[in-house]
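## tool: complex_structure
## caller: assistant
## args:
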Amino acid sequence: MALELIKGNIAVAEAAMRAGLVSYFGYPITPQTELLEHLSARMPELGRAFVQAESELGAINMVYGAACTGLRAMTSSSSPGISLMQEGLSYLAGTELPAVIVDVVRGGPGLGNIAPSQADYTQVVHGGGHGEYHLIVLAPASVQEAVDLTTMAFDIAEKYRMVVCLLLDGFIGQMMEPVELPEFKPVRTTPPAWAIGSPDSKGQVVLTSINIDPPTQERFNVKMMTRWQEVEKNEVRYKGYFLDDAEYVVISYGTAGRISLSAVRASREQGLKIGLVRPISLSPFPAKVVDELADRVKGFLVVEMSNGQMLDDIISIVARRVPVEFYGRMGGMVPYPDEISKAIDSLVNGKHDVNIDARAEWLAGLRELVGTGE
Amino acid sequence: MTETDVKVVYKRPLGFTDRTTHYCPGCTHGVAHRLIAEVLEEMGELNNTIGVAPVGCAVFAYNYFNFDFVEAAHGRAPAMATGIKRTLPNKIVFTYQGDGDLASMGMGEIVAAAARGEHFTVIFINNTNYGMTGGQMAPTTLPGQKTSSSPLGRDVETQGYPIRTAELLATLDGAAFVARRSLHDARSIRNAKRAIRTAFEAQKQGLGFSMIELLSICPTNWGLKTAAARTWLAEHMLPYYPVGDFKVSTAVSEMKIGGN
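## result:
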């Protein structure tokens, strides 16, 4: 199949259709809106369900209802909308339902702006809703990877009966790149036996997240946590670059990961032994590779388009074996490769010990660079 | 001995499970449940129906019906029903919601669903208070009515006015059939059943959104015995919430209902 030049949001929408999406519910919000617009034409064209909901709350609860049929359901939004959806995500998790949500992250907090950001890491990876649950979170670094992960997201969601979040930033959503779209998959239209309205169920099906008896709720949570261990075993994805002889390693995902790769390549040209770990599954996190590297490299640099939300996870994995430094931009700002190169130089040439407060050091530098807005 | 002809005149509806109720003595939730089960049985739709339970006293409604059910987040039942009905358009889908759920937390969802003309049915229980949490003021609480969160009586100057949900939704073009009935006496209950039948028939025939508001009693939280609660409903609720058909689309008015 030929490559086509497509915007990220539209590529994800089209990939979801080709993966057999039956029902889509969404609400306009920049920088995600093209995804909704594309499906508003394409879904009815193919006789599938599309509703522009009254709010993100409405949209996620429509997904909640549609997911109860076991057929492929999706919504998409951007950061403030995802905040609104947290209620529904907790219910979806508490009812063990498969669904796919796309978060095209923008600058915050509050209304923030519509520029690319990675500041939703905490709310999707560590759960913004109530109760104990996990989302599976996949973060692409290109439009093609977004297409490939979209296809996979529906299969993984169904395999574990969990919500998969595709975490794009505004860059991936808005950028046009040549992509190869997958073929159309057959669409499942009959609910599976566990779902409502199934011809194969034995007796009444009740799908609920209520366990009014605490011991029952605890047993349910144990079951969910046990299933999550399976996910951690099977679904970790990352890409490693130049790791074999690396003395220092950059850890960065999505658009920041892609920019970091440019900086890492530039360092290699200067003869520095720098590697890159680009996590693709942020949840489950590729902790093992970071743990193993911590035993043999001299230090890490974490790069994010946020205030270091993944940084805390890395600090906990590395556990002060080697220094962990941080470089990030916030509020919709995207780092240039030379900013990251400078941070790499500082890691390699600095005399930092393992007890360094990476975030404080970074913030002091950023304060000097951009000011405090006061 | 001559044999006596025995005729069953009253039995458990086929759509019910054999389970002891958790509702308070005298509560009309059981009556509303029964009417739904009878209507779906008469329509032959018991095996084709999906219910959406609310958050409130009816949170466990699915324990009493034997067809498929889901349990919505507080107020979101109309959005959930939208997702189900759009995905499985041949199913009969209904939500069962109380006044806190529908008229307070979920007012956005219910108005939007009615405006879109979603093809599901809403059974709305109005008992003028939050039953499950112990009788707090609801959007439907009458002016001057004492509740656990309006201990001096609802003061409309600071706590606003009750919402007449049926009248409000009737203004929307997407609504095909919107009616209010009461469950305080036998005659009213028979009328309620007819309205519920019309609502489900309208859905089955794809005519649009339908909602039946049912005036109900809450003896426990009202602090009244059942008979006194029925009288209180008739004397206080009926004047504020008149029964009637507030929206009957042309298609619904021309609709033919088979069977009884």
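## assistant note: Chain B touches chain A through 30 residues (CB under 8 Å). The two ends of chain B are 36 Å apart (CA to CA). Handing back to user.
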